[in-house]
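Quiz preparation item.
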């Protein structure tokens, strides 16, 4: 794959080290306000950058807007995204790479999903998947993102029905995305 090099727009570069625990592993936890009417019971050492507006990409459909948050203090970083329903079918999702991990509302928005699994979690229906991702800096490298699409049963903002949980470059496993989704609930 090839693409123009660019930065990762959106959430700050904060990450979650494996040695500080993961949701559901039995360690000490704290309730964090993620913003936008959501909260999560996370390991105490995690840090949260609350949801904030991000500039839509040029390929976003009219009316599409996104809000992003980030969880972490080390590796792997987890990004959260709430997109308006009007983002469904975003034309820029054809090539995921160089800082653009896609703009999703439904599984149909993901250009090349693999390892798709679905299950129920407290806040709704979770679909986990993997997707190809590339970066081109001094040559190109291929990666595989891990993604969770959490369709909220009772979204705090009905215009943003899906919480996207992203592990860039697949640093977290699908099982870890499920464990995280199980502790995210409406505030």
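Solution:
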């Amino acid at each position: 794959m090839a693409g123009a090099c660019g930065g990762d727009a959106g959430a700050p570069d904060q990450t979650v080290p494996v040695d500080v625990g993961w949701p559901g592993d039995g360690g000490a936890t704290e309730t964090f306000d993620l913003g936008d009417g959501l909260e999560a019971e996370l390991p105490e050492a995690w840090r949260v950058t609350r949801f904030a507006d991000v500039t839509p990409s040029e390929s976003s459909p009219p009316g599409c807007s996104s809000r992003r948050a980030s969880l972490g203090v080390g590796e792997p970083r987890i990004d959260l995204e709430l997109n308006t329903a009007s983002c469904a079918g975003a034309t820029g999702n054809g090539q995921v790479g160089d800082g653009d991990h896609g703009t999703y509302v439904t599984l149909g928005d993901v250009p090349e999903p693999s390892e798709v699994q679905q299950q129920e979690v407290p806040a709704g229906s979770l679909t986990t998947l993997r997707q190809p991702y590339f970066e081109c800096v001094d040559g190109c490298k291929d990666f595989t993102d891990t993604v969770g699409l959490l369709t909220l049963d009772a979204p705090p903002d009905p215009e943003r029905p899906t919480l996207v949980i992203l592990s860039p470059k697949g640093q977290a496993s699908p099982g870890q995305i499920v464990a995280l989704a199980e502790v995210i609930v409406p505030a």
